[in-house]
């Protein structure tokens, strides 16, 4: 059983997705990730997007630690249902509706968003079968919706290659924790082509 580690809802038990279609982030990786995010100063009052949310554990952890709004995007029925349950629990503890769930595909969700820098933090833990090209496409869709100074975190198997970063997004750090690799990226200025 997973729990919220810290913040207003710290210690709250979370529902897990039944079966093996998702792989929850281990407590060790979650603690390391949130230590880094807090060091970057990106959590307080952040607008957070948790893509391929699974149970929503990372997103609701952000809400517990002071994010202003968290959007969980999950397409699978069972996982989206668990996201709703976990979001409802955290929203009840926080006494306001911080966490929202979108039961839809990631690409469709991102392609319908207006540009303009909405999100301060994006967490992505895509399923292993997602191809490198598809991941690169999704990262490209993120660029127009990132706020200045935003952080994008991609969690993959440590055997996966580094994501292909699109123009407008650059990796500034990565960390390996056993079988898990985290990549941290930020918006980058795109230099105009020489004519």
Describe the structure.
InterPro entries: RNA_MeTrfase_RsmD (IPR004398), SAM-dependent_MTases_sf (IPR029063). With 195 residues, the protein is of the alpha/beta class. It has a single domain, classed as Rossmann fold (3-Layer(aba) Sandwich). The chain has five helices and nine strands, in the order E-E-H-E-H-E-H-E-H-E-H-E-E-E. Helix 5 links the parallel strand 6 and strand 7. Helix 2 runs parallel beside helix 3 (77-94). The model has no long low-confidence stretch (mean pLDDT 92).
Q: What secondary-structure arrangement, pairings included, does this model have?
A:
Blueprint: E1 2-3, E2 13-14, H1 27-40, E3 47-51, H2 57-64, E4 69-73, H3 77-94, E5 99-102, H4 106-111, E6 119-124, H5 132-142, E7 146-157, E8 169-177, E9 180-187
Parallel strand pairs: 3-4, 3-6, 4-5, 6-7
Antiparallel strand pairs: 1-2, 7-9, 8-9
Helix pairs in contact: 2-3
Short précis:
It comes from Arthrobacter mangrovi. The chain is α/β, with parallel strands linked by helices.
Provide tags for this entry.
single chain, 9 strands, two-stranded antiparallel sheet, globular, Rossmann fold, 195 residues
Question: What low-confidence regions span 5 or more consecutive residues with pLDDT below 50?
Answer: none
Order of helices and strands: EEHEHEHEHEHEEE
Kindly state the percentage of residues in helix: 25-40%
Q: Trace the largest sheet across and list its strands.
A: 5-4-3-6-7-9-8
What is the tally of helical segments? 5
What CATH architecture do you see? 3-Layer(aba) Sandwich
Q: What's the average pLDDT?
A: 92
How many distinct domains? 1
- Stated plainly, the CATH topology is called Rossmann fold
What is the percentage of strand-forming residues?
25-35%
Report the biggest beta sheet as strand number plus sense, adding barrel if it closes.
7 strands, mixed
CATH uppermost class: Alpha Beta
Q: How would you classify the helix and strand content by structural class?
A: alpha/beta
- Quaternary arrangement of the chains shown? single chain
What distance separates the N and C termini? 57 Å
Backbone shape: globular
Cα-atom Rg, whole angstroms? Answer: 16 Å
**Overall number of strands:** 9
InterPro entries: RNA_MeTrfase_RsmD, SAM-dependent_MTases_sf
GO molecular function: methyltransferase activity
GO biological process, one term: methylation
Pfam families: Cons_hypoth95 (PF03602)
